[in-house]
Every structure is written in C-alpha cells, then in structure tokens.
C-alpha cells in the first residue's frame, strides 16, 4: 500500500472558483455532488492498483472478490482542516469480517479509514498495550515476549498467506469525499467480474456534509458569532442507488444499518431495501452489535433472520463475524447461481 | 495503564434530570460547566494512579514533573455516540515532546487522546506499515524483521528505561468532558510539587461543546429537519485561567496556539498571554509545524523567538522537538530559580 496520507486533506479541498455555482439542468443529486467536488489527487494511482488486483483474480486465482468498507468517514468543517465531524467506528466489524472472507477463499479489497483497525494487525493495535510491550530484549536482541509468541505466529502466518497470495488489498480514505470517489472507481472496476463481486458496506458513512463552496479556508475563530458555533450541513446524496443501478449492477450488495433505538431498526432496514432495491441489509444496534445482528432481505418468508452468539460462544470469545460471513457467502452463492 | 476505554462514552453522558437547569448565582462559567456535566466514572482510579506517581517523584526520584497533553478532544453530538466533532491531531507533537522530556530527566504524565500516538511506540504506529510487517517467521518462531531490529532495540531500551524508572504515566481521554475533568484532577495533585511542575498543553482542545442538557439520546435521523443537519455549539469556558489562578498557581504553564493563517498567529499568542497571564505560548502553523515554531512570552525584549530547523537538520530528519524541549526546560529552570 502506498502512503496516500490524507488526515490533513488540505491539498484536496481547495475551492475551485472555475466551477459554476448553478447546476446544469436534470442532473441527479449524485451527479451534482461529483460535479461540484474534486476527486482526491491520488485517485488514478488507486485505480491502477485496484485494476491490477481485480484482473489478477479474474484471470489467475478465479476467486470471488469482496469489497469491504470499514471505519468512519470525516466531514471537514474547514479547508485547512483542524475541525471535522467524525462517525464513530474503530473498524472492528470490517477488519474482522475481512479475515473471515479471506479464510473462506475470497479476495478482499479493504477500503478503510486510515489508521482504523486492519485485518490481522487488529489483534495488536487499538489495545491498551503499547506496541513495544510485545517485545523484550534477550542478549542484546529484540525478541517477541514469550507470552504472546505462539498466538502471534498463527496470526502472522494468516497475514503472510493473505499477502503472498495477493488476496488482500488495503485502500485508505479519510473524508467522505475521498470515500465516495474511491467507492465509485472500485465499483466500476468490479464490473469486470460481474456477479462474482460482493459489496460488504460496513463503513460508517456520514449522512451529512459541508459543501466545498461553503467551507471557510481558515480555522473557524471562536469569537465569531458571539462565541457560538453554528454548523449547517447538507445531506449526502444517496449513493447506494447509484451503486445498485449504475456502478455495479451485477454485484451482490450488502449494506449495514446501525441504530441505537431497537424499535426502529427493522423498519429502517426495510426502508433501505425498498429505496435502493439491493439484496441484503444487516441491521445492528450500537449496544449489542458484537452479540447479535439481523439479516433483512426483500420479500423473503424468513425476512428477519437473527444471528446471535449463545452464552457458550460469548464466554469462549467467538467472534460473531465467524457466523455472519458464511451466511453472507451463502447468499452470494445463490446470487451467482441465479437462485435469487 | 488500565483500560479506561471510552470511545463510546455512553456510560458517561447520560442526562441527569436531577441537576437543575438554572445556575446558582455568581458561579463562573468554569464552575457552571463542572456543575452541569458529570465526571467520567473512572476518575477516582486515575486520581489515585496520578497521586502515587507524583508522590514517588517528590519523595524518591526528585525529578521535575511535566504534564504533557496530546491529541484532539471529541465533542459528542449524541448520547449514544455515533457522531462527534473532532479536532485534528495525531498527537505527534505531544508524543515526540514527551520523549525529549524523558531524555532530559523529567517524569512525564502523558494525558492523551486514546489511540493517538504514544512516546516510543509512535515510531511503529500510525504508519502505513502494518504491525505484522515488522515480524518474520524463522524456524517456526516469530522474529523481528532484521531490517528493523537494530533501531527497534534502541527505542525499546529507552521505553523500558522510562517504564522501569516509573517516569512515564499514560492517562487517556476521548471527549472534551473527560479531558477537562482529568486536567483539573491532575493539576490539583501537581500542587504537591509546586514550581517543579510544568504544564505543556499540546492537546487540541475543542473551543466548542454541546451541553449535555441539549444532547439527543439517540442517533440523529437524517430525514429530520428536511435532510439538513444544524448543530449549535456553545463555547467551552476558558479553563486556562482556572489553571493559572486556582488549580496550579505555582507551576510553569506552556500553551500552544495552532493557526492556519500566518498573519494572525503572533497576535493570537499575545492575546492568550494577556488573557490568561501564563508564561509561554508556543505558536505554530498547521502547514509548517514540523519545521518552525515561535516562543511568545510576556514583556520580554526578545518576545518572539523563532525556533527553526535548518536545511541540514531537515534533510537528516532532526525532530524540531529536540530543539524545543531544551528551550522550554531553560524557561522552567529560570521559573524554579525565581528569575522570571
């Protein structure tokens, strides 16, 4: 993975005064978004990496390919970004799911928030253990602390296996703008493998954004407007319909619905299915997301299928993604075989 | 360090209806803040850890103690926090500075945003290298990749030295509320060492916050208010004056001023000095902060002292903190000796 470091995306978000303020007639909200917002400068580089990856698996490994999105997008509030709105997500669902896709024979494009959890290394980062706590000095040499060595060997082998088989491609994003442009490019390239493409959209994408045309160049000063800060955000266009209709019409598309209020979860999942006409929504609650999720599918008799860890599984630290991914793969296999 | 994990601070931010909405007469904004916002539940545990640390250095090591704050605070926009406003900061300045304080004989309390960069481990995290890329398998054992082994040994020795001499205490925060409560507790405890305490406030603390009384319990729904999101934030009370006047009146206090507009940097630094009556503001620009900073002090002839890396230093990767910290320590020594 190249260093597309963009935690400070000042280079990407300069206002282009040449772009007219009035939209052309009959453009959809999604088209307008792309017309008025510049792509990240590194996009061609990503495009070429992703293309190589997909072509390799199409022609050589013949693996199915899943795009896993993971982590939260940011919405910068200033051009020289000091402040931004963020969506809470460490990337646990995405990173864990990616491992189980790899173990089940998929090639994985992992589109993730920079510095969020990654497959395999997640076991050693974002913990209260410092990196160096895994190390010890023996005879003037750094060695792995014996407490961790056996388990680390297992994880390292899986990681090297994924790398050596060219089955894992890491692509980072930070802002919602970078996410949307990158998602579009990858989706269009995934048309190369048709139904063998699976979208597993676990990223926490902002519903709102601040249009570049309204973004101040410099840091918002706290004495402005009487010491208060008022932020007015527009709704992010619903790109999922674009994904379903135009960008990746043959692929199986799985989206997530995260809520905090149990009483509206199923309804919101069904609304999403009706609106976007895709194949599967996995619903989950912030409070219980590591123990239960619900599969909601269009016009199925069993249209609400809960997947829950039982007490034994919880006490032996079974990860719920080890149950989710085989179920998703079954839906994908049916999709490929035309049984859907 | 215990696991005070609070990226999802739902437990900390429940609205307490027993707290009256009307403030008592004659309370300052700072006092009102603490009256209307609950402390994090883990605060007593931190208090006892910090107390032990300070007492050890007061009675046994006789080291000066610096509180380094580092990373950005978050402002939750919902009680079940999915969305929050964040301040951009990887924590590079704080983590790097902490290392040079340790090397110059200080004991360091490192009050940092959880998962931001830490002293020493910073060399191996937040890079595009995955943790596992530093490892290799040799004869069925995990070993450090030889490319990294020599340098890692040097870093590991410094880290172990800091730990074994009990000179580094890591204390995490996530929200601005957690930061403010923790800062107050640590400041009051640091009165134990009087002038030997140094505050090096490098964290990016939000100027604005959403009062708990106005915070929605559940995730903000995007269809509310016609698809727009309007966020109205209040100004965070200026706690620096409390720090200077009440919490730590004998300590030397160094604050940072980060701007993006060069033309207002010095003026804003001077305004801060006048308002809070502390001893040193280190000014820096987002764009050049790794190459130059400016020391601004009250009523000094040389009241703007720039510290800049020269070209040789830049090309040999000298860290500007290796120049900043000895200068700060000189100011602190003068302070202790009463030459200020």
Task: Describe the overall structure.
The structure is a homodimer of 340-residue chains. In chain A, helix 2 packs parallel to helix 5 (176-190) and helix 5 (176-190) packs parallel to helix 6. The longest helix of chain A has 19 residues, at 43-61. Chain A is built from nine helices and 14 strands. Chain A is globular. Helices cover 34% and strands 21% of the residues of chain A. Chain A has helices at 29-36, 43-61, 92-103, 146-164, 176-190, 239-247, 265-276, 311-315, 321-336, and strands at 65-70, 74-76, 83-87, 107-113, 135-138, 141-144, 168-173, 197-201, 208-209, 229-235, 252-259, 280-285, 292-296, 304-308. By secondary structure, chain A is α/β, with parallel strands linked by helices. Strand 3 (83-87) of chain A pairs antiparallel with strand 3 (83-87) of chain B, so a sheet runs across the interface.
Mean pLDDT of chain A: 87
Question: Which structural class matches the secondary elements of chain A?
Answer: alpha/beta
Number of E-state strands of chain A: 14
Report the largest inter-chain contact. Answer: A-B, 69 and 69 residues
| N-to-C CA distance of chain A | 36 Å
Please tell me the total number of domains of chain A. Answer: 2
Largest sheet of chain A: 8 strands, mixed
Quaternary structure annotation: homodimer
How many H/I helical runs of chain A?
Answer: 9
**SSE string of chain A, helix = H, strand = E?**
HHEEEHEEEHEHEEEHEHEEEHH
The CATH architecture classification of the largest domain in chain A is 3-Layer(aba) Sandwich
Task: Specify Rg of chain A, calculated over alpha carbons.
Answer: 21 Å
Q: Would you give the CATH topology of the largest domain in chain A? A: Rossmann fold
């Amino acid at each position: 993975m190249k260093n597309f470091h963009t935690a400070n995306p000042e280079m990407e978000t300069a206002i282009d005064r040449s772009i007219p303020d009035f939209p052309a007639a009959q453009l959809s909200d999604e088209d307008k978004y792309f017309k008025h917002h510049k792509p990240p400068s590194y996009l061609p580089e990503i495009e070429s990496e992703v293309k190589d990856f997909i072509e390799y698996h199409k022609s050589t490994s013949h693996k199915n390919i899943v795009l896993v999105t993971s982590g939260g997008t940011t919405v910068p509030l200033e051009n020289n970004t000091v402040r931004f709105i963020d969506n809470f997500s460490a990337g646990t669902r995405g990173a864990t799911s990616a491992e189980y896709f790899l173990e089940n024979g998929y090639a994985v494009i992992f589109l993730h928030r920079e510095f969020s959890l990654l497959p395999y290394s997640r076991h050693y980062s974002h913990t209260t253990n410092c990196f160096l706590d895994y190390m010890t000095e023996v005879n003037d040499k750094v060695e792995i602390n014996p407490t961790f060595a056996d388990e680390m060997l297992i994880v390292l082998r899986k990681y090297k296996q994924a790398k050596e088989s060219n089955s894992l491609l890491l692509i980072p994003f930070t802002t919602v703008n970078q996410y949307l442009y990158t998602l579009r490019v990858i989706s269009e390239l995934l048309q190369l493998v048709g139904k063998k493409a699976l979208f597993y959209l676990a990223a926490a994408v902002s519903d709102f954004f601040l249009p570049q045309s309204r973004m101040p160049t410099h840091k918002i000063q706290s004495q402005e407007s009487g010491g208060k800060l008022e932020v007015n955000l527009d709704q992010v266009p619903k790109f999922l319909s674009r994904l379903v209709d135009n960008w990746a019409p043959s692929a199986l598309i799985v989206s997530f619905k995260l809520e905090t209020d149990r009483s509206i979860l199923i309804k919101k999942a069904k609304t999403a299915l009706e609106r976007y006409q895709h194949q599967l929504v996995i619903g989950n609650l912030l409070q219980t997301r590591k123990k239960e999720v619900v599969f909601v599918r269009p016009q199925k008799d069993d249209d609400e299928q809960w997947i829950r860890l039982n007490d034994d599984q919880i006490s032996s630290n079974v990860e719920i993604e080890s149950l989710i991914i085989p179920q998703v793969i079954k839906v994908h296999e049916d999709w490929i075989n035309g049984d859907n």
